[in-house]
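Problem: given the chain below (122 residues), write out its structure.
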Amino acid sequence: MDFKNLLAYKKSFELAMMIFEVTKTFPKEEKYSLTDQIRRSSRSVSANISEAYRKRIYPKHFISKLTDSDAENAETQTWLNFSLACNYIDKKTFDNIIALSYEVGNLINYMIKNPVKFGVKD
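Solution.
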């Protein structure tokens, strides 16, 4: 299996692309702060999932990269909260994006708790 077929990867990639699109409307003065931060953290979720999958022959590395991915997802949620508080996104958009972020978090945690199902050897 290729990492691109993992549901967690697919959903995290979808999340990063949603964030990319919505941040296009953020104020210009946020370009080098909030916009960059939320784009970076959201993209890092997918990147860490792909790295974890490649390191699945090393159980501790697999778990470590997935916990990094989970942490980046939490950071993304924090930036989403700032985006809502600053009125850069409306509540409906926030709710849609944050729901997908929670789903991604659940998928990552499933992988962490069930590494054998992803090719990790005991």
